[in-house]
Amino acid sequence: MGAAPDLPVYRILSDNGLINARERHIARLQEIYEGKKPARPFFLFGITGNINGVAPPAQSNPLAGIAQSTSLAPVDPYVDAESWVAKALEDLAQRADALRDETVFRPLCLEFGPYGVHFIDRILGAHVYTSPDGTWWVDYLSGEVGALRAPDLFAHDTWSLARRFAMAFLGAGVTVPFFGLPTIASALNIALNLHGEKILLAFYEEPDAARRGLRIINRVLCETHRWYLANIPHAQLQPVIAQNRCQPPGHGQLCGCSTQLVSRHVYQEFIAPLDEELISVYPNGGMIHLCGSHTQHIPVWRAMKRMRAFQLNDRAAEDFEQYYRELGDDRIFYINPTENVTIERILKVTDGRRVVIIADP
User: Fold this and answer.
1) Exposure pattern of 211-230 as b/e (b: 16+ CB <10 Å)?
2) CA spacing 20 to 30 A to 283: which of 2, 70, 235, 295?
3) Model-level pTM greater than 0.90?
4) What is the mean pLDDT of the chain?
């Protein structure tokens, strides 16, 4: 199970001063969720603990997507999750004072996402592999959409690996860092990963099969989220990409990337009830991540009151004024600035209300 927690690392990452610094920013964030105008714009730009990555020599035993830190020796997390967690915490301890920044919220985050955006795909039986450059890929399932079967989650090695990361984090006993989840995504995202265009055709040609397959996927997603809620302290539990998407405790997240591929009618009939179910696993609802062209769904999302926050980056950020204007004054926006959507423009439109700017000013 790896070495015992390193005492200097434990002292730093359980320091009451750092906890207080984190909670001051969380209190500011909570005020934004309550509709209050902050005394100064809210910037979020966190830190993820990482160690040296090793490019996989072949498709087996890959190590992809690990940022570089020159001071720590490489460890393959797919072989030794516990040592990876220990070294990632050591890296966080070396940079912990950044959390004391009063202007920018720089939360310390421990996060590793096994198999990238194909984490759930592998649990559901898909062949997941890497290209020579370390990019994750998945082969579509050969069966029909309605033939998908629920997995034995706790018997699957992918889920066992994910729980090892969580248990290693808990075993370290540190109380300052956030624990970021793997990419659990959403029913539509996963269905497209598993079936490709078959799921899009099924909405029109085999609607009952589409519903059946999507329900099976969503049950798996909800079950994984519930396990994390039951096992990780809520003050430290955060969604994927925690350093740039952290929310007040009790909020979850789903990925809405692929909603740009479907009409409002299809989303409302097939997907929205599942997204509502998923986000309602969390006591305070949560966030949807958007990165494409999704504005056709604004009327549906406006009616989904559990969808508290909208995280906009890349193409989606270009539409932020429409989202901000049409979704109602009880929604929060996390925006990654772009060349066109600058920090200045964001502040001019919002006056700092209901907005979290994901940038280092």
Assistant:
1) bebbebbbbbbbbbbebbee
2) 295
3) yes
4) 92
